[in-house]
Amino acid sequence: MNEERELAINPIVQTSVQHNTQVVSNIRNLTASLFGVAAGTLGLESYPGFVFYLVGTLIVSGLVFVFRAEGKPSEYFHRPLGDLWGGDVFSGLSSFVLTWTLFYGLVRA
Amino acid sequence: MPFLGTALNGAGLIFLTHAVYSTHEHSVAFAASPVPLDITIELLLSIFLLSAGIVLSSPDFKPIQWAQWSGKISRETRKGEGQWTREGEEFLSEGDPYAFLGLDGGIGGKSEGRRGFWDVRAKRKEYEEWVKSGGQS
Fold first, then answer.
1. Which of A26, B12, B115, B132 has the fewest CB within 10 Å, making it most exposed?
2. What is the pLDDT of residues B11-60, one digit of tens each?
3. Distance between CA atoms of B67 and A49, rounded to whole angstroms?
4. B47 and A26: CB-CB below 8 Å?
5. Residue B106 in contact with residue B113, Cβ under 8 Å?
6. Stated pTM of the model
């Protein structure tokens, strides 16, 4: 009820929300395959590879936070924690594993 | 900012290609030994450069609060995103699914073709200036 009233007083622009989510998911998809290239070339295996991906996404989230959201994520995201820091982390995982295995096979094997 | 993003992307791609190629050569020459430190550093640096470039060259966020969003629009006007006619109307031909028919100039090229919406604010300002200047055309 409280949140509903808050939304009635300060309405949210749906197209902006969609645009921001789209930008974040684009960045995530591009960087995820990039981290896969790095992890495969470094020859990481099992858990270190996934840890590498999580650290990488954290760094990218930090870059987005500083350069795109200008330190004020609540202006651009309804739920900054879920949409900026955690947004699309697991949807990028599949492209990460794809390029990870590809480059591991190409370079190391 | 787009120039900086492109420059970072370019440098990152060069470093990344070089690092991956070096790793490949190294693994061919010394199959058992791990990747040398300099290649690792180059690889991580190139990844960082590329992700910074991707973030910098991505489009700006738009504010989601209605008040800030509309304030930004009325401050900066909507101009600049598409093509505009001299009369202050925006072309909508970008998403026109029938553009391949070549009827943008109207049938037979005689009429004005598809028109967008009026920029009402600009028109109003123009009118006010006309009235202030004494109504002379």
1. B132
2. 889 998 998 888 888 888 887 777 788 888 988 899 998 888 888 888 77
3. 44
4. no
5. yes
6. 0.69
